[in-house]
Amino acid sequence: MMGDKTQEEIYMDQVNDFRAKQLSQCDAPVAAKRWRKLSPNTTKDYISAYRKLRDTLGDDLIACCHDIDDNTTKLIGAGFTNSRIRNLYSAYINLMYANDVCSQVCDEYKKYLKNYQESYQQSQKSNELTSPSQIENMITYSELLDYIKKLRTDIKSQGDSDVLLILEISKTLPYRINEFANMKYIDNKDFVLLFNDEKNKYNWLVKKGWDYFFHFRQYETTKSRPTEIQNIDKPLVKIIRAHIKDRKGVMTAWGYHLFHYTPEQLSKLMIKVSQKIIGKNVGSAILRKVVVSHYYQTTKEKTQEQETFAHAIGHSQSIQNLIYNKNIGE
User: Fold this and answer.
1) pLDDT > 70: what percent of the chain?
2) Final residue belonging to a domain, choices 70, 89, 124
3) Is residue 215 part of a domain?
4) Is residue 76 domain-shared with residue 98, that is, in the same domain?
5) pLDDT by residue (tens digit) across 241-277?
6) Residue 211: phi, psi to the nearest 5?
């Protein structure tokens, strides 16, 4: 520990300092893009990754980074999937750079990521599901509607109610679940008074008279974000209004949390509730595949409608067809 900081936070400071130094020395835009400041969500993910790596590999991650084969064996033995190991190693490589680990060691981890990415993209070219976990937990769109109906009649906690609202939104526009984490609810008259950096601090549900819209923060990262401002259709407005009224009554003070969870807490809650109601683990990836495939499985050719839909939830039409548009039935 150093002061009140955890070892993971110290590691994160090292990574941020290194990236800032590299960025200050960049002339070319492509190089600058590589080293730009990490988003708040990525920062949280990296801190979590360093915690998981230390729990599995040992307290000193720099001392134990030199044997990738042994480290990968340990992570697999601890139950981490290949995709999760990929995410852990992305954070690990940044830490190695920050601690001047020799390039040969870094290259081994980068090779692992490249091989995983190539294998993953090849597997996704199939119109069928390939992940055993997703095959086991996949539902159809009609089953999603049944799940929502069952949950609506079996609300026993605020968490159940929050999950229900996310499902009601997701059946039309399946945003990433972490987009809802710590989302705030605000009246437009207060929202317009915020500075741009304040607006971009959270994702917002904004009430404007009898209408509502989402305002999604935007990051300077390679990861696509949902469109900044999205109007909400009347049927969904009615559902949202009922949820808010049931939870808090008439909202007047700005800054009220619509969903007061971290991304990790919200993901766990989604899984917990779906297990309870339908006996399956229905999270962000499955919801996206269910809804995208329902709308576009039979029309995979590029259309403006699908391009707009894909951009609204934060990716391109080509990525949507590659990753999410699968033959899962109705």
Assistant:
1) 93
2) 124
3) yes
4) yes
5) 988 887 654 444 445 788 889 888 999 999 999 999 9
6) -105, 165
